[in-house]
Specification:
The structure is a single chain. This protein is mostly beta strands. The protein folds into two domains: 121 residues; 141 residues, no CATH class. Helices cover 10% and strands 33% of the residues. It has four helices and 17 strands. The strands form three sheets. Strands 2, 4, 6, 8, 10, 12, 13, 14, 15, 16 and 17 form an eleven-stranded parallel β-sheet that branches. Strands 1-3-5 form a three-stranded parallel β-sheet, with no helix packed on it. It has a three-stranded parallel β-sheet with strand order 7-9-11. Helix 4 links the parallel strand 14 and strand 15. The radius of gyration is 21 Å and the shape is globular. The chain starts with 16 loop residues before the first strand and ends with a strand.
Length: 282
């Protein structure tokens, strides 16, 4: 279901249709298995009981007013949950277990300051947004995790995103595949403030087999700090088999480009190393 307004530039907080979730309450029992809502507002609450068979819930640009945890409490069969560019919720803290949830995607949600889910059988998790606390309670079932941090350039500590992805979310340490996308600004040697955080990591990625890092660095000169930092991290993933390192250096205030040096990491289980390092002037 897509209720996109005809006129352009309508955000999720104004001039949008309020979708009546209570209209889906069937008198003869729940029947909805998939629900896709786009560009509407909803007012979820605990007494809505028409979603006991719901397996897939996608909310894109939805303004949420009310009790989202209460709605999810009634989604006992939910396997796939996507929240993209939604507003109205500051803490995505779901206090009860979503026993059957396998896929969780949270992307570019407005004003969200915390994510906490109880998902014992989650296999795929993707988050895109600001650097915030993320906690996933559950057993060791994670197959793949993707983290895309933005707005890092405007933070006071604008180089903390990679460190947060690696050491700040212990609940993803059971993942077999980890993809990290981030940007950083180099007003000073970027990585000097980060190495100590990685060398004292509180968790080991014992199941990690494949790691992909895509990092864009806004800088004033060539350096290899990023590779040195990543080398410190690799000790936390003793079973890593494939590392893909994609690094883009953007020259601030200049028009010249340069080529970086190739890096190699020697680990017991590391079978393949792929590195792609483009450089471009700004």
């Amino acid at each position: 279901m897509n209720l996109w307004p005809k006129r352009n530039n309508v955000g999720p907080n104004r001039n949008i249709y309020r979708f009546p979730l209570e209209a889906l309450d069937a008198q003869d029992g729940p029947f909805i298995q998939s629900l896709f809502l786009t560009n509407v507002s909803i007012e979820p609450h605990l007494v809505i009981c028409g979603f006991m068979r719901l397996k897939k819930l996608h909310l894109h640009r939805v303004h949420i007013i009310g009790d989202l945890p209460g709605l999810l409490l009634n989604c006992s069969s939910l396997e796939d949950l996507e929240l993209i560019a939604c507003s109205g919720v500051t803490d995505l803290n779901i206090p009860h277990q979503l026993d059957k949830l396998r896929h969780l995607l949270i992307r570019s949600n407005i004003c969200v300051q915390m994510v906490e889910f109880r998902v014992p059988d989650l296999s795929h998790f993707e988050y895109q947004g600001d650097v915030i606390p993320i906690v996933l309670h559950g057993r060791s079932t994670l197959e793949e995790v993707t983290l895309k941090f933005h707005n890092a350039l405007f933070d006071r500590d604008n180089n903390r995103a990679l460190s947060h992805a690696i050491t700040g979310i212990p609940s993803i340490s059971t993942a077999k595949v980890l993809n990290v996308h981030t940007q950083m600004m180099e007003d000073r040697p970027v990585w000097s403030s980060q190495v100590h955080k990685l060398t004292r990591s509180a968790c080991m990625f014992l199941n990690l087999r494949h790691l992909t890092c895509r990092i864009t660095i806004f800088t004033r000169g060539s350096n290899n700090h990023a590779r040195l930092l990543l080398a410190h991290y690799l000790d936390s993933a003793p079973r890593l088999e494939t590392l893909q390192l994609h690094m883009s250096y953007v020259v601030a205030g200049g028009s010249h480009c340069w080529h970086g040096e190739q890096a190699s990491f020697h680990m017991y289980r590391l079978d393949r190393l792929h590195e792609w390092v483009p450089f471009r002037g700004g």
